[in-house]
Amino acid sequence: MPLPAVTVHEKRFHQELQLSQSPTVSGCKAIKWEEGTSYVASVTIGVDPNCLFFYWTDQHRKSECLDLAVVRDTRTGDKKAHTPRDKTLSQLCLIGEEPTPERCMTIVCGNSYVDLRFISFIFTKRSDAQFWTNELFQLAYNYKTQNISLERTLLKTYTKLKITSASEVRITVKDIIQYFYTDKDDRRRCERTLESHKNDPILLEKFQFKDFLRLYSQIVPRPDLESIFISLTGSKSVKFLTAEQMRDFLNRTQRDPRLNEILHPYATTETARVLIDKYEPHESSRSEGRLSQDGFIRFLLSDANSVVSPSCFTLHQDMSHPLSHYFINSSHNTYLLGAQIKGKSSSEMYRQALLTGCRCVELDCWPEEDGKDILITHGRTFTEPIAIKDALEAISDYAFKTSDYPLILSLENRCPAKLQDKLGRYLKRYFGPALLDQALSSHPLETGVALPSPEALKNCVLVKNKKRAPTVGASPLSGPNHQIDPTGEGIPEDALANDNSDTDDESDDTYPVEAGGLAVSQEATAAAKQTGRPPVVQMVETELSRLVNYVQPTRFDSFEAAKKRDRAYECVSLVEDHANVYLKKDPVHFIDFNKRQMTRVYPNATRVKSTNFLPFFFWSAGCQMVALNVQTADLGMQLNTGVFEINGRSGYLTKPELMRQKNRTLDPFTESNLDGVVPASISIRIITGLMLSLKRISTFVEVDIYGIFADINKKNHRTRACQNNGQNPQYDQTNQPFTFRVMLPEMAYLRISVREERTSRLIGHCLLPVSQFRPGYRHVVLRNEIGQTLPATVFIFTDVKDYVPNYQIDLANALENPIRHQNEHDRKEKMDQLINLTNDLEDQDPEVIEQAMAPKDPLPGNGAPPQLAISNGEMNGNGGNHSELTPPVRNDTPEKIVHPLSACLVVDRAHRESTSTATPSGTPYIGKPRSGSGNLTTQVQPENPDDLAAHQRLQAVHAPVVEELKRQTKAIQKTCSQQDKDLQKLRSKYEKNIKRLEMSHAKERERVILVHDKSRTEQEKRGGGRTTGGGDADGMVKLQEGQWWELLKRQAEAATALRMEYYRKELDLNLTYHETFYRQLEAELNLQQLVMNEQLKSVNTFNVEEIKKKLSQQASKELAELKTRKDLDKSQLEQRRDDVTQKNIRQGVSIAKKYEILYEDRRKILTEEIEMLLQKVKREKSQVELDLREKFDAKRSVLEDELKKNSSPHAATAVRTSNGELNSRF
């Protein structure tokens, strides 16, 4: 069977990285220069075959490389790429006839969004610069570059070693050790380990990656992987895994139990063979279909064993829902490089935010001091402004460079009307047709009409700004306590706290007009201040206001009012404090509001250092645009980057169904199960860290869950610190996994972070979606603060399954296996009936109880199998035949019970089909007490109805019937079924072989006949047509008869040999399954013994508790009677009470001891019965094996007799004559 079907998204992810074929790729010449110096170098650039590094080699053959994973951008052309500004440097860079800016390429790289490094190259041709700019950008933002496995991380180290060293150079093992350890003690330890090879010269030209991996396994030992391999093979001496063992490992350990078996089939032996062919480094092992330890480790390091599904990193979600059904990657004050009050600003931040996948950027528009143009700045602070043109140019160039889905420009507009018109013209100039200046015909701006989808708005730019905002004038509605909102309705001044747009939270003294309105003259403003009354409002639309359509900010009153208006195009902006109030006060209606309309949440003004809140708080309410400070890579931004990395970094993520469907509700604070959502249970064990640091540092690992409020676990889950080991620390010290319950897996993320113990410095982290999480042994490659991959890796073991509370375990088991649940239910029901029956008979005469508890015949036709039991007379030493087990047989089954192993068929099909349901393995046989059980000699005899009832409950637990185990144990059934299949395959193969042999023999006989006929004809010709030659003719006939006899003898021997081979293989197959069958049967009997012991303990506990309860009730009754007696004084009453209490205790202890004796007697009897059954099974096993061999010997004897008979000359002549052959011709 082939591998499970791979989705289109996984195929897209697994596409191999490669550089486009071009004559300029190999050995392309360029000039590398550095700004601020006169350094110019002629270099040869290229990309390694694995597309991991971009490198350049100077004239001295010294090579440097740049990891493509840290490349943020590549630029060429004027105003994009950096060009030499120094005249001397410009003269040195003048090569070719084209202008220098067109031949220049700048690579932007760095480990943060603020501190960037710029590397510049100048080419001889413009086409070369354009080619390398495009290709390097595509490679840097490829799925595989950003999401690598540990194997690819090691490939990076190997590739860097090859690039930075000449191919003809010989290096030693000591030189390679420096790539993993910088501490002297660590290097010496490794050198001592590799003492005999540390100075061996290695020619890099012949040094392959498989050699590097072998050397790495010696430099950085992995005892954890070795122990896993040994646990799978079962012994240290076994050096290989078979395909079947690998298949079982994939299905039992590495498979997600939540997957559908039809859509995601189980791994087969063929699947395991494909993996063996791919990862086994040894040719001999591959040819034999075995996986060595090296191959097993390579599989665990590879992409095929990634911790999450690769398809989640590609664009795989449905993008046809309304905009309000998505989380949108958003930024706050995008232009800032640092703090909110005092810091630098740059248009470069817009480029970096858009490259990260941000789809909502913010522009704070303020007029210049002279009022002629617009600046981007944080108003009334000391931050540096930038020109509006620079910001819009940067946005237009990078708006759709990494994502084609709509970009939202969130304007905090503080400009007068004239500048707003100018801003509108700027937007049209820079964005052109991409600017959506009017609503789509399919989604008009009307009540009840949903927002368009991201798919419908591809490559569109949306403007978020107030539509038809008010201007200043005289108003009849004006008053000391009233303001005017965009709808023209009066709103009390104390309701301004609910106006949650950025523009409303910060007023402007120079222009007291909100965004979108016309400014009034200074005279009108002065008059309004003198009167102390707010002026009249006029509705005048500006050029900027006409560009606003689907993202119209409005004042928020209440959820009820917004629901009545039902305008999907109206959105609200909430500062985080106000959003928290609404979330805590009415989370359900807040989520319902966000199903229809959009909400933008931005940080509080008190976050002057540009810190961020946790975005999951507001994603839990369904808020689409949770704006964060991109320049600060704290925990909030790390979570945002990790979440939006999936779905192809498109900047849009589909919200969970509970946050989209109108007919379903969600309370993010609830601890109970959500509507239609199955919670998940995650158990994770941190085993090892790898390549965390080249230094000797102490580290620990933290594990957290983020999601809705109910899923955010406030408990600190961290491992113990591993001291002084930065290369391969071992964290699995206590062997205690961290367990999490996840109520909404679709929105939950698991974060693994590694920190240094002394400083708590973050070494690396990784955010994993729970819905795409894969259980088993996995390597997790960590990332830095901005999401770039690191060499640091954590090796974990996880167990993911559906969470089921204790009170719903029975329901879950019933849904998983209805037949098993029904069988267990029937047994429990019968046990309850038995207990109720004994309780009802407690007050009756013992003879009546004996009669009631006597076994009865099962009711015919009830559909339930009869209670199977072995009479005690057969099992004790007083009577019964110990050599035979005679279970009762149902009327609809054959009376003859055929043993499950015979010469050609192991299990009698009639017995397998006789029972429609199977008893699950590990379930004790509980039924009515067996006849004769009262004759058992025990140390204690029942004295009253209570003792008899307890005795009968213990007798209800009895040993199983072997024949029933044979028919009902799943493992045995599977073995028998597999044997049937193998025997049928063997029979079919034999029939095909015998058919081919017969055809071959027939052709050979025809050839001999033709030769004989030809000889006869030639003889007749030589004799002149006379047939009376006498001696010559007789001699030829005898010769041909001899040849014919030899032919038939040889053919008979070949047929007999083939048949004998079939019988021998049949015997070997039967003996193999015979051994497996009885081994499983013995294991099942041992399991039944354990289960019966546990059941006896439960029954004994129940008996003791029942008698304690009755004694307590009796004592309470006696004490109540004592209270009614008037003839006793206080001291006598106390004395009587003590007597009653002491009597109750003595009786309880005495009865408990009695019941313990009954329990021990019954346990010993059952143990003896099981032991006798095991002995019986062993004798039966030997007898069956003997029968099989005797039948084989009988068949062999028959074949030998037939061969002797058919090989005689008389038989050969008879055959020859019956076939018409030689006698008739001669």
Automatic annotation (TrEMBL):
<keyword id="KW-0378">Hydrolase</keyword>
<dbReference type="InterPro" id="IPR001192">
    <property type="entry name" value="PI-PLC_fam"/>
</dbReference>
<dbReference type="InterPro" id="IPR017946">
    <property type="entry name" value="PLC-like_Pdiesterase_TIM-brl"/>
</dbReference>
<feature type="compositionally biased region" description="Polar residues">
    <location>
        <begin position="1206"/>
        <end position="1226"/>
    </location>
</feature>
<dbReference type="GO" id="GO:0048015">
    <property type="term" value="P:phosphatidylinositol-mediated signaling"/>
</dbReference>
<feature type="binding site">
    <location>
        <position position="362"/>
    </location>
    <ligand>
        <name>Ca(2+)</name>
    </ligand>
</feature>
<dbReference type="GO" id="GO:0016042">
    <property type="term" value="P:lipid catabolic process"/>
</dbReference>
<keyword id="KW-0443">Lipid metabolism</keyword>
<dbReference type="Pfam" id="PF00387">
    <property type="entry name" value="PI-PLC-Y"/>
</dbReference>
<dbReference type="GO" id="GO:0005737">
    <property type="term" value="C:cytoplasm"/>
</dbReference>
<dbReference type="InterPro" id="IPR042531">
    <property type="entry name" value="PLC-beta_C_sf"/>
</dbReference>
<keyword id="KW-0175">Coiled coil</keyword>
<feature type="binding site">
    <location>
        <position position="333"/>
    </location>
    <ligand>
        <name>Ca(2+)</name>
    </ligand>
</feature>
<feature type="binding site">
    <location>
        <position position="412"/>
    </location>
    <ligand>
        <name>Ca(2+)</name>
    </ligand>
</feature>
<dbReference type="GO" id="GO:0005509">
    <property type="term" value="F:calcium ion binding"/>
</dbReference>
<feature type="active site">
    <location>
        <position position="378"/>
    </location>
</feature>
<feature type="coiled-coil region">
    <location>
        <begin position="980"/>
        <end position="1007"/>
    </location>
</feature>
<dbReference type="Pfam" id="PF00388">
    <property type="entry name" value="PI-PLC-X"/>
</dbReference>
<dbReference type="InterPro" id="IPR016280">
    <property type="entry name" value="PLC-beta"/>
</dbReference>
<feature type="region of interest" description="Disordered">
    <location>
        <begin position="1015"/>
        <end position="1035"/>
    </location>
</feature>
<dbReference type="InterPro" id="IPR015359">
    <property type="entry name" value="PLC_EF-hand-like"/>
</dbReference>
<keyword id="KW-0106">Calcium</keyword>
<dbReference type="GO" id="GO:0004435">
    <property type="term" value="F:phosphatidylinositol-4,5-bisphosphate phospholipase C activity"/>
</dbReference>
<feature type="region of interest" description="Disordered">
    <location>
        <begin position="1200"/>
        <end position="1226"/>
    </location>
</feature>
<dbReference type="InterPro" id="IPR000008">
    <property type="entry name" value="C2_dom"/>
</dbReference>
<protein>
    <recommendedName>
        <fullName>1-phosphatidylinositol 4,5-bisphosphate phosphodiesterase</fullName>
        <ecNumber>3.1.4.11</ecNumber>
    </recommendedName>
</protein>
<feature type="region of interest" description="Disordered">
    <location>
        <begin position="471"/>
        <end position="509"/>
    </location>
</feature>
<feature type="region of interest" description="Disordered">
    <location>
        <begin position="853"/>
        <end position="891"/>
    </location>
</feature>
<feature type="active site">
    <location>
        <position position="332"/>
    </location>
</feature>
<keyword id="KW-0479">Metal-binding</keyword>
<dbReference type="Pfam" id="PF00168">
    <property type="entry name" value="C2"/>
</dbReference>
<dbReference type="GO" id="GO:0007186">
    <property type="term" value="P:G protein-coupled receptor signaling pathway"/>
</dbReference>
<dbReference type="InterPro" id="IPR011992">
    <property type="entry name" value="EF-hand-dom_pair"/>
</dbReference>
<feature type="region of interest" description="Disordered">
    <location>
        <begin position="911"/>
        <end position="937"/>
    </location>
</feature>
<dbReference type="GO" id="GO:0046488">
    <property type="term" value="P:phosphatidylinositol metabolic process"/>
</dbReference>
<dbReference type="InterPro" id="IPR037862">
    <property type="entry name" value="PLC-beta_PH"/>
</dbReference>
<feature type="binding site">
    <location>
        <position position="364"/>
    </location>
    <ligand>
        <name>Ca(2+)</name>
    </ligand>
</feature>
<dbReference type="Pfam" id="PF17787">
    <property type="entry name" value="PH_14"/>
</dbReference>
<dbReference type="InterPro" id="IPR035892">
    <property type="entry name" value="C2_domain_sf"/>
</dbReference>
<keyword id="KW-0442">Lipid degradation</keyword>
<keyword id="KW-0807">Transducer</keyword>
<feature type="domain" description="PI-PLC Y-box">
    <location>
        <begin position="544"/>
        <end position="660"/>
    </location>
</feature>
